[in-house]
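Sequence of Adenine DNA glycosylase (Tamlana crocina).
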Amino acid sequence: MNFSKTITIWYSTNKRKLPWRETKNPYYIWLSEIILQQTQVKQGLPYYEAFVAQYPSVFDLASAEESEVLKLWQGLGYYSRARNLHATSKYVANELDGVFPDTYKGLLKLKGVGDYTASAIASISFGEAAAVVDGNVYRVLSRYFGIDTPINTSQGAKEFKALAQELIDKKNPAEFNQAIMEFGATQCKPKNPDCDSCPFQNSCVAFSSNRIDKLPVKNKSAKAKKQYFNFLVFVSDDGKTILQKRVGKGIWRNLYQFPLVETIKNYDATAFKPLIESHDLVKGSDFTFTLYNKDCVVHKLSHRHLYTKFWIVNVEKLSEPGIPVSEVRDYAVPVLIDNFIESFNF
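Predicted 3D structure, token representation.
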């Protein structure tokens, strides 16, 4: 069976209609690929449409403030993508006169662009035979060929990249790359793949050997570290609160949050009271505090699980300049904070 031909024929009749498939403009392809990193299409589509509407060209994105970009990105997570997106737009607009590199190697030099994204842009926008390898491609190839090399190892990355490069349709790389990604996303899904209507059923090693749920293989990652976050949500008598901008190199850099107290374990109100009393923002003030959420909100990041509580601290007057609670939604915040703001309904 001709793998490339079969999958592109499948794609021609089964592909979803998506806006970035109606253009070869590298700006729009790059924008869609950055948004869709570690994000499903149904979640990423409204963000793509919002970015295109607000920043129709790379020059528009480059001229925006980072805080505006982060606010529009809010809810997608992995905020380094947004910061890299903004930085790269400035580089392309200011250093390259708005013209994206037209080769895989040239695209790799852009901040936030790795092998997969460079391959996608190079093939779709410029017709270069650079094979994409993402989670969907790993799954399709490992199942069809019965490959049990762990995909999260350097050996696995090289093996699957070489195989994808061997299979790619050199005459129509854009169609092949989009076909194999679409096939993994909608047909050869992680759970409950549609094997009954699969054009590869008779030649798929995983199907014939009953190993569909065993492939692809992935080495177990280290156990996620637990962290205990306590956010102090100040509310003054004149309707103000405190948001602080995160600095440093963390994933939430340049986003805003309520004052944070990190503890080594989960504290109840009695145990937590001395920590609030000794906090610089509270010292010498008359205050009352209540716990907003009895059970911790668990926010899972790739290597950390954040066990979070929100403490409402009522004071007559803030000890530092605050912001009106009516303006809280104007600030770019992590999704964890955003969910609280929506729930608390300032």
